[in-house]
Amino acid sequence: xxxxxxxxxxxxxxxxxxxxxxxxxxxxxxxxxxxxxxxxxxxxxxxxxxxxxxxxxxxxxxxxxxxxxxxxxxxxxxxxxxxxxxxxxxxxxxxxxxxxxxxxxxxxxxxxxxxxxxxxxxxxxxxxxxxxxxxxxxxxxxxxxxxxxxxxxxxxxxxxxxxxxxxxxxxxxxxxxxxxxxxxxxxxxxxxxxxxxxxxxxxxxxxxxxxxxxxxxxxxxxxxxxxxxxxxxxxxxxxxxxxxxxxxxxxxxxxxxxxxxxxxxxxxxxxxxxxxxxxxxxxxxxxxxxxxxxxxxxxxxxxxxxxxxxxxxxxxxxxxxxxxxxxxxxxxxxxxxxxxxxxxxxxxxxxxxxxxxxxxxxxxxxxxxxxxxxxxxxxxxxxxxxxxxxxxxxxxxxxxxxxxxxxxxxxxxxxxxxxxxxxxxxxxxxxxxxxxxxxxxxxxxxxxxxxxxxxxxxxxxxxxxxxxxxxxxxxxxxxxxxxxxxxxxxxxxxxxxxxxxxxxxxxxxxxxxxxxxxxxxxxxxxxxxxxxxxxxxxxxxxxxxxxxxxxxxxxxxxxxxxxxxxxxxxxxxxxxxxxxxxxxxxxxxxxxxxxxxxxxxxxxxxxxxxxxxxxxxxxxxxxxxxxxxxxxxxxxxxxxxxxxxxxxxxxxxxxxxxxxxxxxxxxxxxxxxxxxxxxxxxxxxxxxxxxxxxxxxxxxxxxxxxxxxxxxxxxxxxxxxxxxxxxxxxxxxxxxxxxxxxxxxxxxxxxxxxxxxxxxxxxxxxxxxxxxxxxxxxxxxxxxxxxxxxxxxxxxxxxxxxxxxxxxxxxxxxxxxxxxxxxxxxxxxxxxxxxxxxxxxxxxxxxxxxxxxxxxxxxxxxxxxxxxxxxxxxxxxxxxxxxxxxxxxxxxxxxxxxxxxxxxxxxxxxxxxxxxxxxxxxxxxxxxxxxxxxxxxxxxxxxxxxxxxxxxxxxxxxxxxxxxxxxxxxxxxxxxxxxxxxxxxxxxxxxxxxxxxxxxxxxxxxxxxxxxxxxxxxxxxxxx
Length: 1024
What we know:
Elements: H1 3-9, H2 11-31, E1 44-50, H3 56-72, E2 77-85, E3 88-95, H4 101-113, E4 125-128, E5 138-143, H5 147-163, E6 168-174, E7 179-185, H6 187-192, H7 197-207, E8 210-218, E9 221-228, H8 234-238, E10 241-243, E11 249-251, H9 252-255, E12 256-262, E13 267-271, E14 274-283, H10 289-306, E15 312-317, H11 318-348, H12 351-375, H13 381-410, H14 415-445, H15 449-484, H16 487-499, H17 504-529, H18 531-547, E16 564-570, H19 577-594, E17 598-606, E18 609-616, H20 626-636, E19 644-649, E20 661-667, H21 670-685, E21 690-695, E22 700-708, H22 710-715, H23 720-731, E23 734-741, E24 744-751, H24 760-764, E25 767-769, E26 775-777, E27 782-790, E28 792-796, E29 799-808, H25 813-826, E30 834-837, H26 840-870, H27 875-880, H28 883-896, H29 903-915, H30 917-932, H31 937-967, H32 975-1012
Parallel strand pairs: 7-24
Antiparallel strand pairs: 1-3, 1-4, 2-3, 2-28, 5-14, 5-15, 6-14, 7-12, 8-9, 10-11, 13-14, 13-17, 16-18, 16-19, 17-18, 20-29, 20-30, 21-29, 22-27, 23-24, 25-26, 28-29
Helix pairs in contact: 1-14, 1-15, 2-12, 5-10, 10-11, 11-12, 11-13, 11-31, 12-13, 12-15, 13-14, 13-15, 13-31, 14-15, 14-26, 14-29, 14-30, 17-31, 17-32, 18-28, 18-32, 26-29, 28-29, 28-32, 29-32, 30-31, 30-32, 31-32
């Protein structure tokens, strides 16, 4: 049975089904999680390992190399890079696409457990990278006068309360001051008694424990027994009796200064110039970020009400920007619905037809929320962008069906036959156009890499929307037309319109439309009988539109104005956190004076570096974009000496790629790498568009080297391990145990009195306990010298690497990379050393290659659908001949609107492959119908095309007008999808005009070719 007839005859069941869809759609729309972006889990992981006191060379040899070997033994690892610096080894592991990161992390852990790391090195920390979770959910600043009290408040009250919130993974604390129990041994007295740091540390650890002993019978009861010897206070530690190696005992306080001290802060945090303790809240993977952020704010309010000491500000909260994005997307959807309804009313001028569209479109959108819930999607910029993009498309099918039903009614058919036969006549073309549109999203959804993860939600959402529009057009629209259609009224309106004398305004409008129609008919007639001229004009348009591409820049992702500017400060080697904070204060003062758009700012300063975030007021309240502000601040901060300052317009999508300029130099000798890096850095810096070009080659810094004299050490019963441990314990200290004071667990650190760290001579004179008794100076068993060594050592796939990074002023990474290739081609590279470009350009090439492959597959699927629809191998070629004009016409708008060719615009091009052919399908299908009725080709074209102008124009205008809010980037958060809207509007506008004029030309040319090669069946005039 025909679907339209079935739905009309079972109208109650159909309406109830629609009501259920609406109810469940509303319900699920409130339950969907909200996020800024979909989960973009890059096939990468970070491995961090800490070994306090180790030099970069030591870290490379003792930690990094063993970890690299373990990583490369894990299946699925594509490459590994590392950086070894003072006390820290950082590895970046890249997997092949499709690797399960959780399983890979488990295998990494198994391999790391087999690695023998030095005593004192922490277990490696593995973190899988999720680009959408790189930004914290919230940043909270606790304010007060005493940083030590704020640290205790954060650790004991605020952080535990926030971590108990559902969806919060962890809370990281920065800027405060922590305490520890410090045991400073008197070197002279300890040596006289035969005590060493390691001996005292081991003794304290053995004296501070809870030891379970078993159980004992007490009458009829069995009681457990444990030995409780935990330290309860600093005095307990100080009064500990130390057993001397030579016999006898001594209290620890007699040979050491035992006290509760505040550790030197490793970071300084400030908000708007006020020192604070900063808390960064991270959400759990898959948690609702908006719900978690709002729960954090609610918990902070309750904590502040319960404890007046909790005074805070919130410099950043993720829910603000997410809510802005979601609200802007819904606003675009509503505006698109309204504009589509207006187009229908203006063309059909019937309230019933407009009401049909007004009812069917929301039902279609609500049905998508049900499918999104079933597919586990979130409400994010991409999924909501898919809905906003599809608003104009979903009405296309309904308009084609609606217009045909009303045409049947105007021709004298009764209400039932108009609805059923009118729907049946266009079912095949509607089905074909829908399938061609859906076909482009199949390969797009299967794209690998970042592009695939980024557009998966977009593809699933818009594909669900278009499929729902097909079902609605063939079921609900005929039913609504049956209820709202008054065929007698339509015929009376037709007669009245024919007999009515139009008013002045209507007459002018009618005359203008008549002139346009006459112009169209003249063009159509001319090109129908002059096919060569039509083909030449068509090719000429492609050439003209293609020429504009030479002035279009190519980027990976368009810039987004998120109202933030990030500033990174790099300090000279050895700079302390307070020195870094002083420079950060200078930067803050410049920003406050040069940035009237400033809302607030905060920074976290550490040894040798600082990170600052500048929040701007909303876009509607400022004249400059965040990129403009960043460029002006970059100039204003150039005069601050003693540091390197990098300024960027902060963007979540900007985290998906690295620098515009990125050259990787690999080899083994560090000095040779440095020479090559210096040469190339100088040459690249001279390029006109290059800025902030720098090398990762760290400066050579003085480093003290203790070289063992093994023969001399053996005479005193010493080994390299015992000497190294003694030096480490004296200079860095050893965490012997912990003590719980006021419900806080504090480290007990045993270290020397600091005399050995005063100078090189003092270090050489440092006493090393001998295993034979007594002690010897360090200089007697080792040579203490000063050498030049790098601050950090980078490696890639087990070879040393230096990276040159930088930015472009214009953002044109393609031209910059070509210029760098020219420099590398001319550079005399030493044997065994390589230099190659990486970064944004390579990411862009990889993504573009995947998308172009998806475009090729999409075109193939569109051809298959059309071939099956028309039962012809040639007809799809004719329909798809519109695509070159559509593609080049879409890109024609980019330089005119100041936009770049990006991954977003390529996705729009792929979408055009499935949408612009729809008008051609409608046109060609009706030409074939008229030819089957006995008309010759030219007559069928000249009669069919004018009758299909209205549905083609209606479907095109509804799609274009629905995209206008997106293209104009109305609101604060729509820059990224704006490029897609502009591309789609340009492509559809040009392709529609060309379709109405040149599709008959393509049809005639293919028809002539089929005759020429004898492929046309003589008994079927519509075989083509």
